[in-house]
Input
Amino acid sequence: MQTLSDHAWQTPPVSEQLSRVSVQPSTVSSSSSLSEQPALANLFYNLKRAAEDQPFPSYQERIHHLRQLKKQIQRYQDLIATVIGEDYGWRSPTESKMLDALAPILEVNHALHSLKRWMKPQKRRTELLFLSNSLQVRYQPKGVVGIICPWNVPLYLSLGPLIASLAAGNRAMIKMPPNCPRTAELLTQMLAEIFPEDLVCVVDGNHPQAMEISHLPFDHLIFTGSANSGRQIMANAAANLTPVTLELGGKSPAIITPGFSLVSAAKSIAHGKGVNSGQVCVAPDYVLLPSGQTAAFIEEIKRAFTAMYPSLDGNEDYTAIVNDAQEQRFLTMLEDARQNGAQIDICAADTPAEREQESDNKNPQACRNQRGKYRQYPLHVVSQVSADMQVAKQELFGPMLLVFEYQDLSQALAHVNQGPRPLACYIFSNDQREQQYILQNTHSGGVTINDCGWQVMNHDAPFGGIGASGTGSYHGIEGFRELSHGKTVFKKHRFFPMELFHPPYGKKIQQLTLRFFLGQADSEVKLKSRD
Output
C-alpha cells in the first residue's frame, strides 16, 4: 500500500530546500575568531524545524513571549543607552532610551492589549448564493521571519519587527549590521536569556555568511535600509518567492504653507533633524516654503537649533555621525554643494573662531572645524540648490537640510511628486483645506501635520513606505497581518444543496440562478473584425 510519504508531490524537507541555495548547512571554516559561529543555514534549519513542529503557538504562549521581551528591555535600558553610544562614538543617552527602549515598549504594550482581538477569526459574509453557509478568515503564522536591520536605530528596527513576528506566532532570525558590533552583542545576550535559539536567534553583522541571509527560504523577510540594498534583497528573496517588507527612506519633504508661523515650523524641523543627528529614515530632508521666506526661515531654524544644542563639544544631548565613512559622505556632499554654488548656513556659532569659519562659505575645512569631540556636527542649511548637486539626488541622512522656495502650493506639490515617493511628508498648515489638498495630491509612507516624525511612534497605525520608499508595513494590526497568512475558511452547511450546481448543466435552478445574478444579455454585442 502506498503511504502519504511515498507521494512524489510531498514538500521536500528543509535540509533539501537549503541545498538549493548558496548557504549550506555546515560548519563555517574561517581563520578568524568568528569561525566558532554556527553556519547560517544551521540556525535557519533549527528555526524552520521548530516552526513545523509547532505551527500555531497559542495566545498564552505569544503573550508570555511578549511580556518576557518587555521585561528584558526594561531591565537593559541603561545598558542599551551605554552600548549604542559606544558604537556611535557618542549618542545621546536620552535619545537612545527614547528610540531604542521606549519605542519598542510602546509597541509591545499595544500588542499585549490587542492580540486577543487580532487572533480572533473574523466572520465574513457569504455571497447571497451561498447563504446559510459560514465564511471566516483565520490568521495563521507564516513560519520563520528574517529581519535585516540597519545601524541607525538598531534595537527599535530589530525589536519592532520581532514584536510583530512574535505576536503573529512566528519564529525569527535577526541579522544585525556590521558597524554596531557592541549593540549586536547586547541584543544577542538580551534575547538568549529569554528565548531559545529555535525561537529567536541573532546573527552578528560580521558573521562570515551574514550577507547571504536574504538567499535563505524564509516565510517572510523584513529589511530596513537603503533603496539600493532593498533592490538586491528583493531580487535575492524572489528566487525563493519569499514575500518581503521593505522599509527604505528617501527625501522626505516638509511643506510650510503661506501664513504658517516660521517660528513654530523651524522648532519642529530643527528637532526632526537634531534627533540622532538626522540619521533617521523619516527625518525631513528638505523644506518647501513660500517665495521670499528663505532668509527668515534660516534665522529661525538657527535660533531653534542653538536653543536645543547651545554647544556641541561635550553636549550629551547631541548624537555623533556614526562612523568615519558616514562622516566622509556627509563632508563630500557638502563640499560638492559648495563647489556648485550652494549657500550653506551653519546653525552654530559658539566662539569667534567658529563664527569666522561659518562666514567662510568657500573654506572646505569650515565644516570639519565645527564638529564636536565625537563627530558631532551642527545642522547645515543648504539653499540655492541645483539639480546636479549630490545633495539634490541623495537622501541626506545626516545634519543637513535643503531649502527650496515655491510660488504657489501646486508648484510645491509638483516638486514633491516629480521625485521618488518618500517615506514621510510633513505638512505645516492650520488650514484644513490646505491639509486635505496636500494629503490627497501627494504620496508618502506617512504624514505628521505641524510637527515631524511622530507618526512612527504611534503603534495603532502602520509604518511603511510606498514606491521607492518601501513596500508593506508593520506596527499594529497591519504588522500582525503582514506576518500572518489570512486563510479563508468556507464551511458548507450540512444540508446545503451544493449538488444543484453540479453538471449536467441546464437544470432549471441553474438557469434561474444565472438569470438572477447576470440579468439579460445584449444580443446586439458582436466581436469587432480585425480587418
The CA atoms of residues 4 and 10 lie 8 Å apart. The two ends are 61 Å apart (CA to CA). Confidence is low (pLDDT under 50) at residues 1-11, 22-35, 351-359.
